[in-house]
Design a protein that fits this description.
Layout: H1 6-9, E1 14-20, H2 24-36, E2 42-49, H3 54-59, H4 62-89, E3 94-99, H5 103-114, E4 118-122, H6 128-134, H7 137-144, E5 149-152
Parallel strand pairs: 1-2, 1-4, 2-3, 4-5
Helix pairs in contact: 5-7
Organism: Arion vulgaris
Domain UspA: 16-153
InterPro entries: Rossmann-like_a/b/a_fold (IPR014729), Universal_stress_UspA (IPR006015), UspA (IPR006016)
Length: 155
């Protein structure tokens, strides 16, 4: 169930932003939130950030750009169906939105825009070397978020 106006938001005690995609770590983070944190008076914002590089879209041919846009729309629809269903069957009030840009930056930006009181994110558990070279979305969020961040890691 989505709530559209800020006036309607006054009935919620907290706004929790959860970063989601179609990965197992994201679903684990959602389920961990549902099992250990969620309360009926919380509004939940699920944010899906694509891995697509804006430069790649700008440099692509018109046909390739159309294909990328179509794939992104299909990916977002899949996320909305999956997590919309999970929210509905678990009685979680909230909305699903898309983030643009680098995922870590988009998560921090969306948390500020939504007035989030907390961020929940999964982690793929990159090793130290990979994380050093590739960067980690969860590391970026932890170090740049203005609100508390819970990083859910499956052992």
């Amino acid at each position: 169930m989505a709530v559209d106006s800020r006036k309607d938001m006054s009935k919620f005690r907290a706004i929790v932003l959860i970063a989601v995609d179609d990965s197992e770590p994201a679903e684990f983070a959602f389920n961990w939130y549902r099992d250990y944190i969620h309360k009926p008076e919380y509004f939940t914002v699920l944010l899906h950030c694509t891995d697509q590089n804006d430069q790649e879209i700008r440099d692509a041919s018109p046909a390739r750009t159309a294909k990328i846009v179509k794939e992104l729309a299909e990916e977002m629809k899949k996320i909305e169906e999956k997590y919309g269903h999970l929210m509905e069957i678990n009685g979680i009030t909230g909305k699903i939105r898309k983030g643009a840009g680098k995922p870590g930056e988009a998560i921090v930006k969306a948390a500020a825009e939504e007035g989030a009181t907390m961020i929940v994110t999964g982690t793929r558990g990159l090793g130290k070397l990979k994380r050093a070279f590739l960067g980690s979305v969860s590391d970026y969020v932890v170090h740049n978020s203005p609100v508390p961040v819970i990083t859910c890691r499956r052992h």
